[in-house]
Specification:
The protein is of the alpha/beta class. The chain is 23% helix and 21% strand. The chain is elongated, with a radius of gyration of 29 Å.
Length: 536
């Protein structure tokens, strides 16, 4: 692979890559505002300027400039090399590029940073971007001087409602055009544009339109400063108090890689944002996925319930198990969940087939919905393919077949993971079920007919593996501790199995994973993984 030299470091690059692309792939940050690896090149912020040495035998391109001479107390003519935007200039074999090591580059970046802040309001204490704003970061790194302009700054519209999810502050905008390019190139909805010129520039909506497509929060997320703010997150948390877990979005079968941001002080989740994965979601997430974090706290089952009455967990577990003590395996139905992880569903399968002795396995999940050709899938379950893959002997039967069988009186006992229903119209069939036990995190459609509810964790409260629509298995990390009496579903299933009198020995997630891949080294590998600091 060809290479070029960036500040004395050899950087490999592929044909057609720009300097900033190659540097980004090598883990080197060349300061930038307008460039984004998933968008076209605008080269309008000029923050990524670099100095490129000319090839041997070719003179450098020089510019005539005026520079202040403190001794002469006047501007004197000088010559400086013409700097190039790293986001636009293609890398070449043997090229020598100076970034942090060039005095000319440092001066240029300092000037660009000062220009961007001339009219920028100093409202960092109330700005949601504070703590992760590039203007703040680059001021410390490349400017670090007080504002010299004493004139009144240019004032622009503030708190402009762009749509149901986004508010715009034109005074904070640096006109990088990322939001415009994202709408045009990714979302496919040219709803934003620029008006006026120079320091009067501002982003505006197309006449008669709102910013209301399915990727509005992503439009806000690509903004490098605090110009675009999300109504959902606005004024709710400070980012320096938040911690992040590497999770998988459970909004649909795409399985977008994400960060789940939470406050460890109150164990509350505040936002969902994309995590780069070129094979799954690239750099993006849809609004539905970015807002799916709210399900962590909404409509939860946090205590055991028997016949609608809250009960102490251990008593509830024993009473729920008692309902299944004399169950006929042939008349017992087991329901897996496309909302839960592979580990949770595997535990339920083991309980059903190896201990209860029932082969009547079904699968439930959330109903389907809208889709598009960008990310959104019609299957609103993150692990439907994973559930099918676990059932190696026979695929699980659809939920509607269970409803039909219940209406015909075929089953007397149903043990279900989750309380979702792929077809809410078929839930009424569970009303006549004599013994319905749900191990669930949420109070879904089936909960109203349950004889017993046992609280399970959400994906945010437990480690787990999900298989997306293309068959990629992805691990999701635990973010917050389990709320209430909830347990990871695999652990809750093991406890239920023990309450039935079976010898479930699983106490750690690595035990479940070792059982899922039974080979001589599985247990050893699981132990090594736990000791290395990986989720156990």
């Amino acid at each position: 692979m060809p290479t070029f030299k960036l500040d004395e470091r050899e950087i490999p690059f592929e044909k057609g890559e720009t300097i900033i692309q190659a540097a980004h792939r090598a883990g080197i940050d060349i300061p930038h505002y307008c460039w984004h690896p998933g968008l076209s090149v605008a080269a309008n912020c000029r923050m990524c300027l670099v100095e490129i040495e000319p090839p041997p035998g070719r003179p450098a391109m020089m510019l005539d400039v005026l520079e202040w001479d403190a001794d002469a107390q006047d501007y004197v003519p000088q010559k400086k090399p013409k700097l190039q935007p790293a986001c636009q200039f293609q890398a070449g074999e043997g090229m020598v590029v100076h970034s942090e090591g060039s005095k000319n580059v440092k001066e240029a970046r300092r000037a660009v940073q000062e220009m961007l802040l001339l009219n920028h309001p100093v409202d960092c204490p109330i700005c949601d971007q504070a703590g992760e704003c590039r203007l703040q970061d680059y001021w410390l790194e490349h400017q670090g001087s007080k504002k010299r302009m004493k004139d009144e700054p240019v004032h622009k519209p503030k708190a402009v409602v762009f749509g149901p999810t986004i508010v715009y502050d034109a005074e904070r905008c640096i006109v990088c055009t990322r939001c415009i390019r994202f709408c045009d190139e990714v979302a496919g909805d040219s709803v934003l544009d620029l008006r006026e010129r120079g320091n009067l520039n501002e982003v505006v909506l197309a006449p008669g339109r709102e910013l209301d497509h399915d990727y509005t929060l992503m439009t806000e997320y690509v903004c490098p400063v605090g110009a675009l703010t999300a109504v959902d997150f606005r004024f709710k948390a400070r980012v320096w108090f938040l911690r992040s877990a590497r999770t998988v979005c459970v909004g649909c079968a795409t399985g977008c890689n994400a960060f789940l941001d939470f406050d460890p002080r109150d164990q509350k989740v505040y936002r969902h944002r994309p995590r780069e994965n070129p094979d799954v979601n690239k750099y993006w997430m849809c609004d539905e996925g970015m807002l799916s974090y709210s399900r962590v706290h909404e409509n939860r089952v946090l205590r055991a319930e028997i016949d609608g009455q809250t009960i102490e967990f251990e008593r509830g577990l024993k009473k729920a198990a008692k309902l299944f003590k004399s169950a006929d395996p042939d008349r017992t139905a087991i329901v897996l969940s496309a909302q839960h992880s592979n580990e949770d569903n595997f535990a339920m399968l083991v309980l059903a087939r190896d201990y209860i002795g029932s082969g009547n396995v079904f699968v439930n999940g959330r109903p389907g919905g809208d889709s598009d050709e960008i990310l959104r899938d019609a299957d609103k379950n993150p692990n439907a393919r994973g559930v099918v893959g676990l059932c190696t002997s026979a695929p699980p039967a659809p939920f509607k077949e269970l409803a039909t069988a219940l209406a015909a009186g075929k089953f007397t006992h149903v043990l279900a993971l989750g309380s979702d229903a792929s077809d809410p119209d078929e839930v009424a069939a569970f009303e006549d079920c004599e013994n319905l036990v749900l191990l669930t995190s949420h109070r879904g459609p089936l909960a109203a007919h349950a004889d017993a509810l046992l609280p399970a964790c959400t994906w945010a409260e437990a480690d787990g593996t999900f298989v997306n629509r293309t068959g990629i298995a992805q691990e999701s990390e635990r973010a917050i501790f389990p709320h209430g009496d909830s347990l990871p579903a695999w652990k809750l299933i093991a406890a239920f199995g023990r309450a039935l009198g079976h010898s479930f020995g699983w106490t750690k997630l690595r035990h479940v994973r070792a059982a899922m891949a039974p080979d001589p080294g599985a247990e050893v590998a699981a132990d090594a993984e736990a000791q290395s600091g990986a989720p156990a």
